[in-house]
Amino acid sequence: MPFNQERFINHKSELYRGVDHRPMMGGFTRHQPDSHIYVNRRNTMKSSLDSSNSSLQPKSPAELLKKLTYATPETAPFVPGRRAFFKYRELGLTDATEGQVRAQVTMATGVMQQTGWHYHICDVHFIYTLRGWIDLQFEDGRTIRVGAGESLFIPPGLKHNETAISEDLELFEMSVPAKMETVPCNPPEGIGKFA
């Protein structure tokens, strides 16, 4: 093996688990897939997802062109989503980034049902309202209406409840990673279930 070549650690090894101990927003620890952990010649762990060795940095123009993603209303498919009263248009980033980023347009389809209190397990959850508005209540009791031209970043683990939307709501939504987990939870102390 050449001197500078890294060797892959067996993905079943209990000694080298895929944990990145750098703190993230919300106090979570990032767990990386075992298949992305390597040990270099000095026996120090390194993640293939680090920016210095990222799978998002292809090495040739041909690889870059494979990741080029262009979406139009005609080519971006509707996909199943978290809520029945929304429809979701996938913009292609999930495939282009191998599941590291999701970008979609979320549109109202009818009468909203409150989501109930929940939080998300992710690194990033960002929305930008294109048309209409959405009301979200947060665990400190505050309600924020995010209208057209406004954005909102919801930190991981922050409890919230979507309480109302306009009939014409359309928003851009992005999450990192693409698969964002939604965890139902009890309402915060002093706030009603569907307040």
UniProtKB/TrEMBL annotation:
Name of the featured protein: Cupin domain protein
Species this protein is from: Pragia fontium DSM 5563 = ATCC 49100
Top-level taxonomy: Bacteria, Pseudomonadati, Pseudomonadota, Gammaproteobacteria, Enterobacterales
Annotated Cupin type-2 domain residues: 114-168
InterPro entries, per database record: Cupin_2, RmlC-like_jellyroll, RmlC_Cupin_sf
One Pfam family linked to the record: Cupin_2
